[in-house]
Design a protein that fits this description.
By secondary structure, the chain is of the alpha+beta class. It has a domain of 88 residues. It has nine helices and 20 strands. A four-stranded mixed sheet has the order 7-8-3-9. It has a three-stranded antiparallel sheet with strand order 4-5-6, with no helix packed on it. Strands 11-10-20 form a three-stranded antiparallel sheet. The chain is globular and about 65 Å long. The two termini are 25 Å apart. Bound molecules: zinc ion. The site of zinc ion (ZN) has 6 residues, from loops.
Amino acid sequence: MIARALFLKGLGAAATIATGGIDVWDPLSPQIRVLVAYDTRGETPQVAADGTFSFGGKRWRGAPSTVGMPDGKMALVTTIDVDLYLQGVVPLESPPTWPAAALQAQAIVARTFALARRTLSRAWDVRADESDQRWGGVEAEHPAATAAIQASRGRTLLYGGGPAQVFYSSCCGGHTADSAAVWNGVPLPYLHGVDDPYCAPAPEYRWSRTVPLERAVAAFGSRTGGTLTGTALTDPDPTGRPRGVALLGTTVATIPVADFRRALGNDVVRSLWLRAVRIDATQAAPRLVIEGSGRGHGVGLCQWGARFFASTGASAAEIVAFYFPGTSLTNG
Ligand SMILES: [Zn+2]
């Protein structure tokens, strides 16, 4: 999921939609509009009698419609109960083998995320890809995730009378990130970051990667005079995450950590929490060594933390209250 610091608040259309001849409107599972494809390239969805339709080599749920876009493209949007949509979202985020409470927490957060995106300013509320939440359609569904969605039916996180602006990432590295520090967004009290004692057993709680120094020079050399001889981490935010990487060549350039990560790739720089960046010249080919904590942006729900917190017996309500302090959970 790629985060957005600001959302448009809006109202979802509350019409009853007939799917496969069955009215699926459920007041506990409001409908959302999901953009399956911005450009159908002339393909027509094939609607089946069971309420699914085929498009792009996959099966999807909901009532599909094509929408003409200002640039002349035809988009495919499906209108669907949010929980039917979540059935193809939750299994892609939290492995179905995880404890039920962790899956339920993921369902609550993904449901809140989707409902907070409802808007009248576009022909859709959420995209089906990772720019919002990845939706894998029918093939991605799993009974354990579906059970967690049903067990948490209607439950969302509220703040200030509306849906909370929630985020999640794989592993926070021991302290969730402050959304305002990461995205320069409006500070939200429930996204300041909390100390997380639960995710320490996660596979990428601590990580280290190396890249050839020449790759780093290629990426940043234009700002350091064509060489790279020293590094330092700078300007830690309130959670301890450095905001910048100072690179020394014939001049010094300080690169925001998000730009540093983008330049070297998410596969190398696993998170925004860097612990060390140093040059290793002991090898025949010098390398840049990068060490850090966690995986992903670190804001909001820590998925691995939720998994291990659930293993201690915590409920989904306790998990979301821990990661989003000050929000309230609707009863469903
Ligand atoms: Zn964590």
